[in-house]
């Protein structure tokens, strides 16, 4: 039954994408971020992403409306990044292993560019936020309940054979998604819906802690600091964060505290020292090779040539050193520029959107995108998620919201419900004031 339900939804996305390719992009995002077919028994081996992505690309060229081709600093930088990765590929130290990874990254980045063309209305953007929240929230809320039920004695892990399979990776995905949940909560008019979303966010935070990821803890602290600083009532906000934080931390067992304690004594932790050894390897490799080493450099022979400890072979475990080792200093520069541009665009939306009620949602979204980027920047310093889709979806949201604002779309777009609801359900979602931190 579960397989049939998932297959039916996927088939709907494939068929809808031919006529309305923006629906296909949402389907692609759902498949790429959540990997729902991995939860089934029969669909795991099928080319689900290729089917949804292929139908979306066909719809992009067949559909007569709904497309907005444009050039901005973000998509131009992303295309430059793709070009640089392609230039680097022939110089890869291990070409046969690098090519499949390059191919995978190119597909992801291509669909990010397509999404920027197809998602341009308020409805499109908020539905994209919902897609991201549902995709990661499924694992985060479930992981939080699991942590609560087990007292944090077992780690929370992500879906197998995905970018976020590891406990550290799924923790970062959860952390980055929490601000997007807060954005949706700020748009809700019903008090019960707001309370449900609060419970989901608390469960997500508990799941991040339950992953036993030290990077996730640092990311949560960084995001919490930004949220507190931007709050209108910092005293109330501080009290709220402290109360919720203490309640969540009280659940965690002694082994969790012992692991977090290694942050200050990192020199005595083998895992931390292994990461630092990999960082030095990436730095030394980039110094010696203008193009970097390609997408596959974590081998004993390469560590023997560039690492301080040639016998301690680790993945980079850092978005920064991962890009540095694989794509060189130029690649790292382009990568950082891309997200600095995204930060700036989101910040401008945050400031400009507050000027009138019709655009307040743009301000809310821009502010929460920046909070998510803080989580990604801090947590990503300890994880190898440089090419994963979710951070690039933040760029889609920032650019889309900024273009909507600059184009004064509120004058032409109806401000109706994002998803049509039966009258007896819609009546329960009447406009009410939304509390803001």
TrEMBL record:
DUF5935 domain mapped to chain residues: 1-185
Gene Ontology MF terms in the entry: ligase activity
Keyword Ligase (UniProt): yes
Residue span(s) of domain O-antigen ligase-related: 201-336
Segments crossing the lipid bilayer: 43-63, 75-95, 101-119, 126-146, 166-184, 205-229, 235-257, 278-298, 318-344, 365-388
Pfam families noted in UniProt: DUF5935 (PF19358), Wzy_C (PF04932)
Residues annotated as signal peptide: none
UniProt keywords, alphabetically: Ligase, Membrane, Transmembrane, Transmembrane helix
NCBIfam families tied to this protein: PEP_O_lig_1
Identification of the protein by name: O-glycosylation ligase, exosortase A system-associated
Organism: Pelomonas lactea
